[in-house]
Each structure stands twice: as C-alpha cells, then as structure tokens.
Amino acid sequence: MEREKILQRFTQELERITAGIILDRIEQLERNGKWQISDFLDPHQQRTADRVLHSFPELKSVTWGGYPEAERCRLLLYPAERQAGTADVPLAVLEVDAGLWAEQLTHRDFLGAILGLGLRREKIGDILVSEQRKAQIIVHPEILPFLLSSWVAVGKHSVTIREITAAQLTPPPPLVKEIKTTVASLRLDAVASAGFAMSRSKLAPAIRANQVKLNWQSVTSASASVKAGDIISLAGRGRVEVAEVLGESKKGRIQLLLKKRV
Fold it and tell me: What secondary structure letter does DSSP report for 118?
C-alpha cells in the first residue's frame, strides 16, 4: 500500500486524519481478512473515504446510518468477492423522552447531554428530535449499555430511555426552502449572510468562534471561497446548500439558488 502517496492527495488536516483512519482499516482487513467497520462519519468524511477507496478496487463498502437519508453513517469495508448490505452495519437506536413538561429541546440539547457523559462524537449518529421533548438517537452498539444505565437527564429534565429497532425510526420529511438571491461575491460571509438572513457584521464573530462550517469543516476565514454544491452550516441556525450558481445579473452581481433546511 502506497500510504504516503495516498495521504498526499489530501491537503486539509481533517481530511488527512480521516484518510489515515480509513487506511488503517484497510491495512487491518488485508492483514487478517476480517471485515472492518468505521465509527460514524459526517458527509465530508464519507467523501474523503470514497476518494481513498478509489485506490482499492479489490474492496467494496457499504455506508449506512440507520435510514436512507441519514447524515452520519458508518462505513463497512469488505473484499469485493463477498456480498454485504446495510443489515451488516452494526447500529443501535435509543428513544429518549424528557417528559410532558419539558421545554422545547433541540438537537444541541440532546447531543450536549450525551457528550457531557464523556462519550466521543464519532460514536453517535443522527439525532432525530420530535415533539420538542423526544429524540431517537442512532449510536455505536458498544456505548448502548452505558447510555441505558447512566444517562438520566437532558439539562434540568429527567429522561426515560429505551432501546428501539431501526424499523421504528421516524425521520421527519426534509423541509427545504428555496432562496433565490444575489451576492457581490462567492465569499463565505456573503453567501451565508444571504442564506441565513443575517448581516455580515453579525456573522463575523460566529465565523471567528468556529460556529460556521463549510462542508462540515470549521472555517475561520470570512473570505473563504464557496461554490455550487457546498454546504454551509451555522450553529443553532441549520444549514444552507449552494444549489446552483445561476450567472450574473445585469448589475454584475452573482445570482444563486440556495436551499435551506427548515
């Protein structure tokens, strides 16, 4: 395996880290023949893994996070002469209920409660919040017993937790708002300002505080370049996809079609 040659294709630190993890799994598979499974990967990490796997035609992979539209998924690696499917990707699912009197709880509240127990983010898949007090959470099976026995609250609210099956998952249908707008340039702050309906002056401190991500990676430069297909996320405000760059207006501004999940 030309490990260093493959790693040289990745210039960003997080991409190199992800590529290194995938290469470690491939080396283990080649060494002992056992199928390998990753922790949960975000969409950008999944794309990095795909780029690595292009160099290994003798391997196949399955990416699965519990339901077809899952954002965070685990990656199963296996020899090309074998067969595998989503059922071979080990997952566990929890339903968490904070009770009738819980205030409106968000994805951040449930995730923060789990991380507060000392667990790592890569052991946690998607978190599906419903009714502002309940959540279905997909996790690595190895942390399931700990969560069932140790997780007792989200903020000030006591919770009840039970294991459910993946078939019981009820992901909400994605609601997307299309935004046609114009920007002076394809700078991150300009596009994010249009997508989140915020002034660039208000976005600036959020960018400096690592609250803005471009393709699931933190970006601290407001002038970072954005292109069609990119995803911009802002903590607490959701995410915006740059669906299309439509050309220039008569006034020389760049016309965009953005899609914001609401």
Answer: T
CA atoms within 13 A on the CB side of 143: 22
pLDDT at residue 1 is higher than 70: no
Residues in the chain: 262
Do residues 41 and 49 lie in contact, with contact meaning Cβ atoms separated by under 8 Å? Answer: yes
User: What mean pLDDT do residues 5-33 have?
Assistant: 93
Q: Which two tokens stand for residue 207?
A: 């960018």
With vertex at residue 231, the alpha carbon angle to CA 226 and CA 235, rounded to the nearest 5 degrees, is 110
Residues 174-222 pLDDT 10s: 778 999 999 999 999 999 999 999 999 999 998 988 888 888 777 889 9
User: What token pair was written down for 118?
Assistant: 């000392």
Q: Which domains does the chain have, with CATH numbers?
A: 3-87 (3.30.1370.160), 92-168 (3.30.70.330), 176-261 (3.10.290.10)
Name residue, tokens 């008569």. Answer: 250
Query: CB-based burial of residue 79 (10 Å sphere; 0-12 exposed, 13-18 middle, 19+ buried)?
Result: middle
Question: Residue 212: CB partners within 8 Å, gap ≥ 6?
Answer: 188, 192, 203, 206, 218, 219, 232, 233, 234, 235
pTM (two decimals): 0.79
**In this structure, how many other beta carbons lie within 10 angstroms of the beta carbon of residue 164?**
14
Give the span between the Cα atoms of 186 and 158, in whole angstroms: 45
| CA–CA–CA angle 232, 236, 239 (5° rounding) | 25
pLDDT at 219: 85
pLDDT above 90 coverage of the chain, percent: 73
Tell me which residue of 142, 245, 133 sits closest to 185, measured CA to CA: 245
- The residues, ordered by sequence, that sit 6+ positions from 90 with a Cβ below 8 Å of its Cβ are 37, 74, 140, 141
Query: Which among 166, 168, 125 has a CA at the least distance from the CA of 143?
Result: 125
